Amino acid sequence: MSQILSDISIIPYSPEHREGCMAAFVSNTPKYFTHQEIDQFREWLDYIEGISIDLYPGEENRYFVVLQGQQVIGCGGFGYNPSTKKATLAWGLVHNDHHKQYVGSALLTHRLNRIGALFPQATVLLDTTQHAYAFFERHGFEVEKITNDAYAPGMHRYDMKWQKK
Fold it and tell me: What distance in Å separates the CA atoms of residue 102 and residue 105, rounded to the nearest whole number?
């Protein structure tokens, strides 16, 4: 475990990381994401890069990449809405070739630490599928609601919440 994690860095996303993020996303389709979500993810990257209109008015958004050397092996971020004091995790994923190597845990911890440092009163929310919710439970998230077939037939949505202990 320590060898893998000592070889990674987590830095802010920039347009040069787009291709690596897209490749990581596609590597997780269709188990963790639907094919329709590929375009949604591309639009998210456009938004983060400032290419598209403001998808989330009033929110502050941050996005990060996990690098091993110069290779993108994961990405994820969050948005924060100051009027609700809610932070929502956004598009967190690790390239399929790097699952079960603690990269996802490192990325999640990084995002939670950033939220805590920037927005200490925030309630942290996310939505995920039945394939990934247990990962988040191990990190202190609790299921608040399950919506069957929310993303696609057989792809259920788990709404989850985390608060600092």
Answer: 5
